[in-house]
Amino acid sequence: MISKTINDISNLVNELKTSINQDISDIKEAKHEELLTRNDEKHHMIDEIMNLKMQLNKELMAKIQEGEDVNIYRQSVDSLETQLKDLYELNKKLASIVLPVQQMYKELVSDIAAANGGQIFDIKA
Question: Cα separation of 41 and 47, whole Å?
Fold first, then answer.
């Protein structure tokens, strides 16, 4: 059961990495509508990873209470931890691309609003 949970988390982390790499590629190619589609999928994967992480902790605690040596899972858990650190770094890379773009759009909107006397749209009835 523990090995299956570790594998499930690992698979989700790899899917999330793939999705983030695709986001980076799409941002560079200005395919912003694709980002929104994947965003819901990523949130679902993150929620599932968190649930599986809690399940893994419960499974490990149960084995410890049963007196089983959980060190047999040490290498798998260490590998999973490395994958999660890699995911964190990849997410930082995505953020470093997204935040300047977001700032650019904010500045653009501010400039347009300032040029129009504080209004973005001039609506006349």
Answer: 10
**Other C-beta atoms within 10 Å of 52: how many?**
19
What is the pLDDT, as a whole number, of residue 124?
Answer: 58
Angle between helices 32-65 and 2-28 (to 10 degrees): 160
Of 114, 78, 89, 79, the residue nearest 20 (C-alpha):
89
Instruction: Give pLDDT < 70 ranges for the chain.
Output: 101-102, 116-125
DSSP 42-76: HHHHHHHHHHHHHHHHHHHHHHHHTT--GGGGHHH
pTM value? 0.76
